[in-house]
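Tokens for Universal stress protein B. Go.
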Amino acid sequence: MVTFLIILGFVFTVVLAFRGVILANMLQYQLGVKKGAIEVYYIVQVEAFTTGDSIFNLDNDNKLELYRSCINNIRYMYFAIFIVVLLIFIHELT
């Protein structure tokens, strides 16, 4: 049962990672940034756990909504990674 949950969590994390890159690509296109999608993804990933302002110019509601979707996706991914690691530890202890 634990092995199934670990595999399911891993698949969920990979899906969230791909979704995050797709959202970052859409955000890159909306903002007209000359950086690549992965670079935008890493910038958003760093900003996901800070309380400061974004380095992007988010003057449009559509851009702001897309940016928040990227941040929420990254937070969900880290939460899923935490759960998978916790399940691995529990599985090793039993």
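The longest helix spans residues 61-93.
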